[in-house]
Amino acid sequence: MQRKGIILAGGSGTRLWPITMGVSKQLLPIYDKPMVYYPLSVLMLAGIREIAVITTPEDQAQFQRLLGDGGQWGVRLIWLVQPSPDGLAQAYLLAKDFLNGAPSAMVLGDNIFFGHGLPEILASASARETGGTVFGYRVADPERYGVVDFDRDGTVKAIIEKPEVPPSNFAVTGLYFLDGRAPELAARVKPSPRGELEIVDLLEFYRAEGALQVEKMGRGFAWLDTGTHGSLLDAGNFVRTLTERQGQQVGCPDEIAYRLAWISRDELAARAEIFRKNDYGRYLAAVLAE
């Protein structure tokens, strides 16, 4: 069964107040593109063309105005509402009917991934038909994240949410490849002391049966989350540096769709025309001229 995608773009972004009091965090700019373009691009690079976008009720119309139905990129977007932010695992309950038994890849709407070989590791995770795959990334401040506890032979012993004494420096990124049982298992997750359905509790079901793989992202990869004002600025500067230095876009769904042959030359040309007054449009025109 074809894997489907989920972008979780709900939440109230309180850590970024006051800038997110009037607009969803995932619609904020990361240099030259809205934040949600970057997780969307990750799912597209994984070959996923059916994607559910989960938003708050009040923000959904803005996302729809920005992304439409996805046809401009050869994908199909459907829209789901998260009435209140009750934890990451809640996304699988909201998306149960959409998934309809299919395996999924869920990406958090504020996560940015970059690196040579990214499509290959995504394809590898997507090809696994059973169990789950998550990605571990070395960070300097693991106490802010869900942290992987490995035993001596590298097997995952546990994933611990925001530990006071982290067992390793490997944080679990906001990208989860799970099999078709995810909604059923998510329904068994009990609210944590903070009242949320924690993703680590869902992953524990997979780990306990030996069906969870943690792939380490090495030095050649960048993983950025944008939960603070500083990290938001850092992400924008990171994308700007890469874009200006290499002359290549980061997180560009138009280019990805074209290179995957999901849209035609004429369709990309039409997109380039829409953005003809800025560097994004000029970049798309340059892709066409290659």
Structural commentary:
The chain is α/β, with parallel strands linked by helices and 290 residues long. It has a single domain, classed as Spore Coat Polysaccharide Biosynthesis Protein SpsA, Chain A (Alpha-Beta Complex), CATH 3.90.550. The chain is 33% helix and 24% strand. It is built from 11 helices and 13 strands. A hairpin with a 2-residue loop joins strand 2 and strand 3. Helix 10 packs antiparallel against helix 11. The model has no long low-confidence stretch (mean pLDDT 94).
SSE diagram, text form:
Blueprint: E1 4-9, E2 29-30, E3 33-34, H1 37-45, E4 50-55, H2 60-67, E5 76-81, H3 90-94, H4 96-99, E6 104-108, E7 111-115, H5 118-127, E8 132-138, E9 146-150, E10 156-161, E11 170-178, H6 182-186, H7 199-208, E12 212-217, E13 221-225, H8 229-246, H9 253-259, H10 265-274, H11 279-289
Parallel strand pairs: 1-4, 1-6, 4-5, 8-12
Antiparallel strand pairs: 2-3, 6-11, 7-13, 8-11, 9-10
Helix pairs in contact: 10-11
